[in-house]
Amino acid sequence: MLYYLFEYLDRVYDFPGAGVFQFISFRAGMAVILSLFITVISGRRIIRYLQKMQIGEVVRDLGLEGQMKKQGTPTMGGIIIIAAIVIPTLLFARLDNIYIILMLVSTIWLGFIGFVDDYIKVFKKDKKGLQGKFKIMGQITLGLVVGAVLFFHDDVVIRQPVPVSLQFETTNEMLAISDHEEPSETVQRESVKSTKTTVPFFKENEFDYSVLLRFLGGDYAKWTFLIFIPIVILIITAVSNGANMTDGLDGLATGTSAIIGVTLGILAYVSGNIVFSDYLNIMYIPFTGELVVFIAAFVGACIGFLWYNTYPAQVFMGDTGSLALGGIIAVFAISIRKELLIPLLCGIFLVENLSVLMQVGWFKFTKKRFGQGRRIFRMAPLHHHFQMKGYHEAKIVQRFFIVGIMLAVLTVITLKLR
């Protein structure tokens, strides 16, 4: 909203300093500051309100050290995170940008599903919360919307160089070399609808989902949505649930998400900037630079929430926060066509998810085969395995952060490591 106000003041009244709002870097910085302010300053009041309303965590006794001390700790703190993401985005981002609209819808939708789950757990005293099938249905619905918009919307394009032989026959608008508007360049480019995505570690690092339907012959590309949308649904569901699984130790999911968010911000900035995308020889995706403002608010919200969520936690995010964080990461990565980097960047989420699948699968198999179920880990998800081995909760979280930073650095250098 402030973007449009100051753009008007700059254009009509030549208001001093109003032009600075045209720069993504400035608005991203302001979004970080405001999201930190919202979480840190308002967080204490919200925590007191949650305590007053007796909205506390119901802890199952799993025999973990210090676990029962968390009984009654305020939960549903994800409300703080969502507010600290949505408010700065509404104030500083361009709200006519299709990617920003998608991110806001994803945040609110998954936050609502998580809120319903937490509400049932806390107020209905049902430890199971919202039935799994309803969570999955909500995630699938979001995946359908996101996939359809990214496939069919006219503003979702990539811009690629026009072959030399065609440059004098093609008339395209020029682009700008700043980080705020469409800049100018010497090589003409054309905007095309495409289902290409980035493949890490390969020199020719672009893959088009449409080739999977080449066997249909003819105009096979128009049917690519039949593959693309299910892939989007799978990614959103997997990452959202992965973040939910990771939210088991104080600060673990929040800090890991912040690390991932910083990395996605870097990827979005270079993908949405003609100069950097040319230099790095990566796909240039118009209008995605605006996503830097959103992800800046996301990182600020996560870091600010850590003020109260680090060990010993004064508040838990609950499913209100964890489902939203995972969904945001998934939709963001898909939007900037870096979804194939998710297994690397979100390696913590992946391992946590796999540890549960392996544990459950092996237990069922051995019970059927030998009559008695056996376990791979002492407890799943993986962070509980290390707790059972005697590691302190804070040490586990810090070491997971270190691994997360290593994965983030490796993800960034895939831009040149091919």
Secondary structure blueprint with pairings:
Layout: H1 2-13, H2 24-52, H3 78-92, H4 98-123, H5 132-152, E1 158-161, E2 189-192, E3 196-198, E4 206-208, H6 225-246, H7 252-271, H8 274-280, H9 291-309, H10 318-335, H11 342-345, H12 347-370, H13 382-388, H14 393-413
Helix pairs in contact: 2-3, 2-9, 3-4, 3-9, 3-10, 4-5, 4-10, 5-6, 6-10, 6-12, 7-9, 7-10, 7-14
Radius of gyration: 23 Å
Could you report the average pLDDT, rounded to the nearest whole number? 87
H/E element string?
HHHHHEEEEHHHHHHHHH
Q: How many strands appear in the DSSP assignment?
A: 4
Decide which structural class fits the backbone.
Answer: mainly alpha
Shape: globular
Contiguous runs where pLDDT drops below 50 for at least 5 residues:
167-178, 180-186
| Approximate helicity band | 55-70%
Number of helices: 14
Which sequence of strands runs across the widest sheet?
A: 1-2
Strand content of the residues, in percent?
under 5%
What's the quaternary structure here? single chain
Q: How would you portray this structure in words?
A:
The protein is mostly helical and 418 residues long. The protein has a domain at 24-157 and 193-343. It is built from 14 helices and 4 strands. It has helices at 2-13, 24-52, 78-92, 98-123, 132-152, 225-246, 252-271, 274-280, 291-309, 318-335, 342-345, 347-370, 382-388, 393-413, and strands spanning 158-161, 189-192, 196-198, 206-208. A two-stranded antiparallel ribbon has the order 1-2. Strands 3-4 form a two-stranded antiparallel sheet. Strand 3 and strand 4 (206-208) form a beta hairpin. The longest helix has 29 residues, at 24-52. It starts with a helix and ends in a 5-residue tail after the last helix.
